[in-house]
Amino acid sequence: KGKGKGPQGKRITLKMARNSIRVSFSGRRRLDLSKMGITTFPKCILELADVEELDLSRNMLKKIPNTIEKFQNLLWLDLHSNQLDELPTAIGTLQNLTFLNICNNKLTTESLPQELNLLKNLKTLNLGLNCLESVPTTLGALRELVDLGLFDNALTTIPKSVRSLPKIERMNVKRNPLRELEKPQEEIDTIKRIETLYLVEEKDLCSSCLKMCKGERDELHKLEDMTLNSSKELSFPLLLTPNSSAKDNQEEWRVR
Questions:
Q1: CB-based contacts of 174: which residues, under 8 Å, 6+ apart?
Q2: How many secondary structure helices (H) and strands (E) does the chain include?
Q3: Most distant CA atoms of the chain, gap in Å
Q4: CB neighbours (10 Å) of residue 174?
Q5: Which end of the chain offers a freer environment for a tag, N or C, measured as fewer CB atoms within 10 Å?
């Protein structure tokens, strides 16, 4: 039996890891160890630290060690769907990273290392499905960010420094209790609006069209007359007390 706490998970050997390297169309080498039942970071993969992409998603990892800094060539790191409740400070040394997915873990705002701000080349950062109560304002330092995932957290506000990132195109904040996104329910407009209006002279209309237009104009005038009449001050001549005093002193008048 193993000495560690909890399930040991699958043991990854160097041979298995080498056989898990795939080459993408762009020529990047990806070490794909996703869905392998891994519970601890395999030390043997440090021998393969020259890969450009590392996929450890869909495992049961609780910690990523600071030895992740050995992967200095990494452009792409996927850690989504694990049990991570913190990130190593050494994550900030991976200066070439353009893609970091840490969604669907157990990260809190406090457990996000400040060193995340050092990843100046990040274009995609996915922090969705975690336990974040706020977004560090320092993420505003990631000036290259194009895509930011913050969905399914406990966020009540998004700091201005993050909202005003210069290159941001997509920011998914769905299913957060955000105060600024609570919009008052829009009133339903019962009046039919027209998008395009064409004006013509009467002489250009055929007799049937002219008749139809005049009919609709008459209907509109009737509607205007009804509106004007309904806005006139109502009079109640049968009231015992004159209207004016009823208006000025309604409470007293009602008691009487």
A1: 151, 152
A2: 5, 8
A3: 102
A4: 11
A5: N
Amino acid (one-letter) located at 106: K
- 10's CB contacts (< 8 A; 6+ apart) are 36, 37, 38
- 108 token code pair: 């809190």
Question: Counting beta carbons within 10 angstroms of the beta carbon of residue 59, is it exposed (0 to 12), middle (13 to 18) or buried (19 or more)?
Answer: buried
- CB 80, CB 126: distance < 8 Å: yes
The tens digit of pLDDT for each residue in 195-218 reads: 555 566 776 777 777 777 788 778
Give the tens place of pLDDT for each residue, 38-50.
999 999 999 999 9
pTM for this one?
0.69
Instruction: Enumerate domains of the chain plus CATH numbers.
Output: 33-172 (3.80.10.10)
Q: Which residue has the tokens 């009046």?
A: 191
Between the CA atoms of 82, 84, 87 and 88, what dihedral angle is there, to the nearest 10 degrees? Answer: -90
- Give the strand pairing for 76-78 and 170-172: unpaired
CA dist 94 to 32, 37, 80, 132, Å? 18, 25, 17, 23
Task: Region of 18 please: left (phi>0), alpha (psi -120 to 50) or beta.
Answer: alpha
- Strand blocks (E) in the chain: 21-23, 29-32, 53-55, 76-78, 99-101, 124-126, 147-149, 170-172
Q: How far apart are alpha carbons 193 and 154 in whole angstroms?
A: 40
d(CA 3, CA 18): 27
- Residue 47, both tokens: 């021998």
